[in-house]
Design a protein that fits this description.
The complex is a heterotrimer. Chain A is mostly helical. Helices cover about 75% and strands about 5% of the residues of chain A. The longest helix of chain A has 27 residues. The two termini of chain A are about 30 Å apart. Chain B is globular. In chain B, strands 1-2 form a two-stranded antiparallel ribbon. By secondary structure, chain C is α/β, with parallel strands linked by helices. Chain C has two domains: about 170 residues, Rossmann fold (3-Layer(aba) Sandwich); about 70 residues, no CATH class. Helices cover about 35% and strands about 25% of the residues of chain C. In chain C, strand 1 and strand 2 form a beta hairpin. In chain C, helix 3 crosses helix 4. The radius of gyration of chain C is 18 Å and the shape is globular. The chains are: A mainly alpha, B mainly alpha, C alpha/beta.
Chain lengths: ~300, ~300, ~250
């Protein structure tokens, strides 16, 4: 009932409308709902670490998708040279990318924190370009993927047959959300991070080491997204430019949810996933699915500008 | 003493005008490419002077390429008319995007423009009957039948016009408007500047210039394609040029374009697949260590000696 | 010299009628109503957080009010954007000074003339020189970082003045000035008033309020709790309690 109060009257109306629409969709095009939840899970999973950095450190990491891409390459070469399954490779990826995050932060991001927002955007943009060009140079643009038989698992539900592996992304997104919320609200480091995100100067005044918090959160985000890259590889090929659409879609989700709203990012992910799956379900129009997020982003921006005008 | 300040301009103009007389065809081709990138670098910087970071350069460049070629092929207007049309199309699209998004500015604007190139490419791929789809289209012949010297004059003319527009931005009341908006929007608003309107106008003008450059490029090289016309090269290199040379000025992007343009030719020979990596690296290094660029740093030192301390 | 009180100064050039502003649950302005006559100097005082700067932001157009009306010389500007209000005649300074760093002192003031008055470049240069002289700014070609604190404050006022305002809001311009500088600033403000600008002064320094203003309104927690000449208002127990807390 607290949720009901928090949503307010328009909020409840929106949720009810969404539920009705979803039910209609499930009857009319059930595969759209299934694939939408799977796709949406992937989007939410990738967006959460970006939301973490934006909410607490306050910068947009335009290289976010590129770190995921590097994580996928890492898992790929690990599987080629050691036979390690990418799912297992998530663990070493966490460690390696945590270190990579620390290095990136200390060498570059930290200097940019005091600079205007423009410099931060340019910096992470430059890093993104360097990463994708580096990958292109090292491994060419050929898509690479290890063959894994378990990703083809499927199941039957009544008259529907659908792949079940991709639900791992959905489960992962929910697990990550819960994990992050617990981390932020129950642990000391997490609570300090929340404080820093809301008011860095105030946090510093009460003795929180703001720079160390930034370092921890940034490295955590990079570690997570590197591991997510390994998970990504199980079902998708990796190539140098695979990451950048995810950077932009992640930002779209964060814009939808509002900065600092992690659960909203997950809901937004499902929404975007279902919307894209819907477009994809129309034969011949599938190519337009990649425009959906842009339309959503512009709509969100326009909606927010309108609200700000009357603020 | 005002004529003394005109000397560098006069020297530059003389050199540029007589260039084809003492250079071979290869050098002229390089010059054509450098001048096109210089135009892009200048137009990007002009928007940056308002404090807005736009990543749409490659997008509007590609839009211009497609608009020029499609008009030319479908209606047979002269190539030059189609190039102007390209600028108009890019400008109108930018105005629409700007009207929708520029109330929120900052990172929202940056990411929306970053997404533009990809979105335009998707659109182009999905209407193959009009645009030739993923394979693109070729022109039956290049403009001026490929006469390099005439092409050089054309592109030089565009570059000179762009330099003029940039100087208008620097020497008229627009300079005051842009600098005020960049330094402090609230002060700008409270001093009578209609910030939103100015930004939309500047975004439209600079995007139109990028469209003209794209149209010219398409006619000079004779083809359009989703990968080629919207390539990240057309974003990365102009940014690196403007940053390296010195942002917020006319001479900065010119210097950067000349320096990097020459360097780019050399890099393409030595490290054929790595040169984009270098441009990304330049963006990172300049943003971190030399935010005013080479020309900007020199100018600050000059200005410091002209404007004395308190008296 | 402070005048005897409101109503002796002619028709109001600015009326604020029951202005309300809230941020979420926080009420910043609660039915604030006041008039400003064309040659008055009105003081706005109140404890920290009373809503003084919010009031300037609402009248100036950086925030839109949630209720009420603002009328400037027969124009209803309640929903007008900030730059339109500026062109119609509202000028203001900022409490934390924001000089435009990439422009010289003269260029800072020119901004006001160029866009508040829509002058041409050459005329704007002249207006800036005149205002610089009026305020005593010395060499106007200096970069902003080379100015003293007093000069930067004068620059703020100069930029607002260059927009040819009918009403000028000065937000704590005396803060951080020594007594000589304060006297110089008071003289400057009077000179501005003599040129026909109605002035609204937000201040914490009571001696300034006493010497400079014709009358005063007192804000506390977003509402006006007293109004009138400073001498009368400053003695009221409600006003004293607002600043010092309740007296048992």
């Amino acid at each position: 009932m607290a949720l009901v109060r928090r949503l307010g009257r328009t909020g409840i109306f929106v949720v009810l409308a969404a539920v009705v629409l979803l039910a209609l969709l499930a009857v009319w095009k059930p595969y759209v709902v299934i694939e939408g939840i799977q796709r949406g899970g992937l989007y939410a999973l990738i967006a959460l670490p970006m939301a973490l950095i934006l909410g607490i450190v306050g910068i947009i990491n335009l290289a976010h998708g590129e770190f995921m891409m590097l994580g996928a390459y890492f898992a790929y070469w690990l599987s080629v040279y050691t036979g390690m399954d990418p799912l297992v490779a998530m663990l070493p990826a966490l460690a390696v990318f945590a270190l990579l995050g620390v290095a990136t932060y200390l060498l570059t991001i930290r200097r940019a924190l005091k600079a205007p927002e423009l410099n931060q955007l340019l910096l992470t943009f430059g890093l993104a370009m360097m990463a994708s060009q580096f990958a292109n140079l090292m491994w060419t643009s050929r898509p690479l993927k290890p063959h894994l038989s378990y990703v083809y698992s499927s199941m039957r539900l009544g008259s529907l047959t659908f792949g079940t592996y991709a639900f791992v992304y959905t489960a992962g997104a929910i697990a990550l959300l819960v994990g992050l919320l617990l981390f932020l609200k129950r642990t000391r480091v997490g609570k300090a991070a929340l404080a820093v995100g809301q008011n860095p100067r105030g946090a510093r005044l009460v003795g929180i080491d703001v720079n160390r918090t930034y370092l921890v959160i940034f490295s955590l985000s990079i570690a997570l997204v590197g591991a997510i890259g390994a998970l990504f590889l199980t079902r998708h090929s990796v190539f140098p430019s695979v990451g950048s659409p995810f950077t932009m879609k992640s930002f779209c989700l964060i814009a939808m949810a509002g900065i600092g709203n992690l659960s909203g990012v997950v809901w937004g992910g499902f929404g975007l996933g279902i919307a894209e799956a819907f477009v994809l379900s129309f034969r011949g129009y599938g190519g337009w699915a990649d425009v959906v997020f842009f339309a959503v982003l512009v709509a969100v921006i326009m909606g927010r500008s309108y609200r700000r005008r009357t603020a | 003493m005002r004529w003394r300040r005109a000397v560098p301009y006069a020297v530059g103009a003389a050199l540029a005008a007589t260039f084809p007389l003492f250079s071979g065809m290869y050098t002229q081709q390089v010059a054509v490419t450098v001048l096109i990138y210089m135009t892009l670098a200048l137009s990007w910087d002009m928007l940056l002077r308002s404090g807005q970071l736009g990543f749409g350069t490659a997008g509007f460049f590609g839009v211009g390429s497609y608009a020029a070629v499609l008009l030319f092929l479908h209606t047979g207007v002269p190539a030059l008319v189609s190039i102007l049309f390209a600028g108009a199309v890019a400008g109108v699209i930018a105005a629409l995007v700007g009207l929708a998004v520029l109330r929120l500015r900052g990172m929202y604007f940056a990411i929306t423009t970053l997404a533009l190139a990809g979105i335009f490419a998707v659109v182009v791929r999905n209407i193959p009957s009009l645009t030739g789809g993923p394979e693109g289209m070729m022109l039956p012949s290049c403009i001026f039948s490929g006469d390099t010297t005439k092409v050089y004059w054309l592109v030089l003319g565009m570059a000179v016009l762009t330099i003029l527009v940039s100087e208008v931005f620097e020497r008229t009341r627009l300079h005051f408007a842009l600098t005020s908006i960049r330094n402090d929007e609230r002060v700008a608003k409270s001093s009578g500047i209609g910030v939103y309107g100015v930004l939309v106008l500047v975004f439209a003008i600079t995007s139109a210039i990028q469209g003209v450059a794209g149209g010219m490029y398409a006619h000079v090289f004779g083809f359009i394609s989703p990968e080629g016309s919207f390539h990240a090269n057309f974003l990365l290199l102009p940014l690196a040029m403007a940053l390296l040379g010195g942002i917020h000025s006319t001479w900065g992007p010119i210097v950067g374009a000349l320096a990097l343009g020459v360097l780019a030719e050399y890099l393409k020979l030595e490290i054929p697949y790595g040169h984009l990596l270098v441009y990304g690296g330049i963006i990172v290094v300049v943003t971190l260590f030399l935010p005013q660029g080479v020309y900007g740093a020199a100018r600050v030192r000059l200005r410091g000696s002209r404007l004395g301390g308190s008296r | 010299m402070s005048g005897p009180g409101a109503g002796k100064h002619g028709a109001p050039v600015l009326r604020a009628d029951r202005l309300c502003k809230h941020f979420g649950g926080l009420v910043a302005l609660d039915e604030v109503t006041f008039d400003l006559a064309a040659d008055e100097i009105l003081g706005i005082i109140g404890p920290n957080g009373a809503g003084k700067t919010t009031l300037i932001n609402v009248v100036g157009g950086l925030y839109l009010p949630n209720g009420g009306r603002i009328v400037l010389a027969e124009h209803d500007i309640t929903t007008a954007p900030a730059h339109v209000r500026c062109r119609l005649g509202i000028g203001r300074t900022f409490q934390i000074v924001h000089p435009l760093r990439d422009l010289s002192a003269r260029e800072n003031i020119m901004v006001g003339a160029l866009f508040g008055q829509r002058r041409r470049l050459r005329e704007a240069r002249q207006v800036a020189e005149e205002i610089g002289a009026l305020l005593g700014l010395g060499n106007m070609h200096r970069a902003v970082e080379n100015l003293t604190v007093l000069e930067v404050k004068k620059l703020e006022i100069g930029r607002a003045l260059a927009t040819r305002p009918k009403v000028l809001f000065l937000d704590e311009v005396m803060a951080g000035l020594n007594s000589d500088e304060t006297k110089a600033m008071i003289t400057a403000v009077r000179r501005i008033r003599d040129q026909g600008v109605a002035i609204c002064v937000v201040e914490h320094v009571m001696s300034v309020i006493r010497d400079l203003t014709d009358r005063v309104i007192v804000l506390n927690a977003g509402a006006i709790i007293a109004e009138g000449p400073y001498a009368a208002v400053s003695a009221q127990p409600r006003v004293v309690a607002a600043y010092l807390g309740e007296v048992d």
